[in-house]
Amino acid sequence: MALGTHRDGKQHELWIARESISNAPSHVFYDKLNNLLRSIEFDDFVETLCTPHYAKAGRPGIAPGLYFRMTLIGYFENIDSQRGIAWRCQDSLSLRRFLSVAPDESPPVHASMTHIRQRLPLEVHQAVFEKVLCCASAHQLISGEVGVDSTTLEANAALRSLVRRDTFEDYPEYVERLMREAGVVAEDEKPSAEERIRFDRERKGKKFSNKDWQSESDPDARIGRMKNGSFRLMYKAEHAVDLNSGVILSAQVHHGDLSDTQSLGDTITDVAIRFKKSDVAAGISAVVADKGYHTLAQLAALQALGVRVYVSTPAMKNKHVWVDKAEDEKRAYTNNAKRNASPKGKALHRKRSEKVERSFAHVCTTGGSRRSWLQGLESMNKRYLVAAAAHNLAAVMRALFGVGKPKEWADRWKQIKEAIERVIQGLVMAMSGGYRVRMRRSGRRRELLLCDLYF
What we know:
Elements: H1 28-39, H2 42-50, H3 64-76, H4 82-91, H5 93-98, H6 110-119, H7 122-138, E1 145-154, E2 162-164, H8 171-181, H9 193-202, E3 213-215, E4 222-225, E5 231-242, E6 248-255, H10 260-277, E7 286-289, H11 296-304, E8 308-311, H12 327-341, H13 343-365, H14 377-401, H15 406-431, E9 435-442, E10 445-453
Parallel strand pairs: 1-7, 7-8
Antiparallel strand pairs: 1-5, 2-3, 4-5, 5-6, 9-10
Helix pairs in contact: 2-7, 3-4, 3-14, 4-6, 7-14, 11-12
């Protein structure tokens, strides 16, 4: 056989038969995921849901099921941007098969995903999340014990884009105005960057407040401290998770400066609404949260609803004095403290630490949602809801097949092959009467070699 040469300017055939186009073997995980989506009639559901938001006549657009599948791929492949998702779907033949894109067609580009996301309101994404929640409930994955916690998300905006809320000045212009008001420079004089930095370093009362400053590119983002200790423009994501299966019951993105005590009531209300819309038989039997959610008003409100609350009590230097406090708040505080000290309360708090933190690890760390390339609270909620729905689909897949992500499927197959090799090795040792067997990689296959006597 003669040596082939690589030519960049090679002229290709004008016409190619369809059967000659290369096609990849199907990916086992995505095939099973497609079967799960067909079993719940996912495509018919989203098409009916999205019909009012499209024109009745004209050229057919991109199928809504295709858009939501591409967003699911962002979670399963740990891709945080729409450009990355579109490139990955264009590059992978197995993902094209999952999307039902023909070999001679192209998947939607990232701009098309943006247009569809802007066209579909937040209520459509919430309905898709509830549809997946119904699927999890049908597989007996919802028990009613709810764990609540929050984490920070990095916004798609920089601190350099901050402007004053009252005058819309950026920071250099603001410092220059202070210099003129202090009489350091004349009204018609332009200070140098070195003079501005020196004045800003020496002045007192310097601080950034969300009441005075906002991002020019993303007004919904807030200044706050991230998990690594750095200050950035951020959002806050809050999860309500089932403590037995790890299914996310509610996923909301809030402003970054909203405290946990202010959002707990909205989260529990959202879970109750999700249960009612999704026909979930189990009600909220227990709510477990850390000490950041501890307030007397919240404890009393949840106890009035008949919910057993397990909220960690923060350490106090002095003994609690019940002066000018309602009786229901005192009763709620006492009952909550007794529940936390019980064996069941300690077990529920251990579950909360495991399940809720794991949901953040899956959605944010390995699901591509920690850093968002979108701007605005509504867009953030749309993308995050679909990521949470993907997490719940993974929980259903894990309950059915023992695997919830494509990489996990590859690792499981590797473990199965290693287990088979160990079984074969044990059989050979038994048949050889005590010979020691070692494994050696030779080319693309493995060989069993009998070595020295084991005894």
